Amino acid sequence: MRMPNAYRRSFGLIAVLLMVLAGCPPVEVVEEPQPQPVETDEPAEPDPALVEPEEPPPPPTIPTVNLTESLRATCLVFVGDQFPEGELVNLDGATHSIRDVLGPELTVVLFWNSGNLHSVVQLEDLARDFAGPLAERGGRIVAINVGDTPEEAAEAARQAKADFPVLLDPEQAYFGKVATERLPRTYVLDAEATILWFDLEYSRSTRRHLEQTIDVALSDEPAP
Question: Is the pTM of this model over 0.85?
Answer without folding.
Answer: no
